[in-house]
Amino acid sequence: MDTKVKNAVDHLNEILPLAERQETLSNGIANVYQLILKSYIELGRTLNKAEIAEYVEDIDETINTLRSNDMVVFDENDEPVGAYPFTMEQREYKVNVNDHTVHSMCALDALAISPMYNVKTHIESKCHVTGDGIVIDQLDQKILNNEENKNVHFGLNWSSAANNCCATSLCTEMIFLKDKKIAETWLAEDPDNREIFTLNDAIEFATRFFKPLVTL
What we know:
Blueprint: H1 3-15, H2 18-23, H3 27-42, H4 49-53, H5 59-68, E1 73-74, E2 80-83, E3 86-87, E4 94-97, E5 100-104, H6 107-117, E6 120-126, E7 133-139, E8 142-143, H7 146-149, E9 153-157, E10 174-177, H8 180-188, E11 194-198, H9 199-210, H10 212-215
Helix pairs in contact: 1-9, 6-9
């Protein structure tokens, strides 16, 4: 693994140690967590509270555990609305998978879905700076429409991880940038906190961080 990618994976695991937290879950809650993640792929939506309750003895304990570990995001009615890399919110990272249209929380998350489940994905997003459309067809770690995406970069602002929920902080500044020039200009605005990656490196980053969640 490239040193830059390894360092980024390690850093993100310090901020949001999902795989480590998953290992601390009881078997029942760990199973429900896997079902919630897979529901986006299989159903095109998250399992709801009532559906989750069918698999666990104590629904309140399950919700509190997943929420406190920032593994699943819940609304004010304790209904799940997101589980990294997926979200029910209409964010600017739309992913077509298994004939379902889902959304991811950020650019990195969008790139993680295909390698997590070894399924083909069609990502529709935009450049954070210019607003130009970005379309990525992906199978595992391979970009199927590589020619039109050879200059696309991924950027993130590490300093944005400012609260207990990455969905509303760090994820908001993990972005696509349409080409190297724009990426370098964006980086130069805050080089101490920002970092950029080629698209291929970003896919490796996403794979190394997210795939352990479904292979533990």
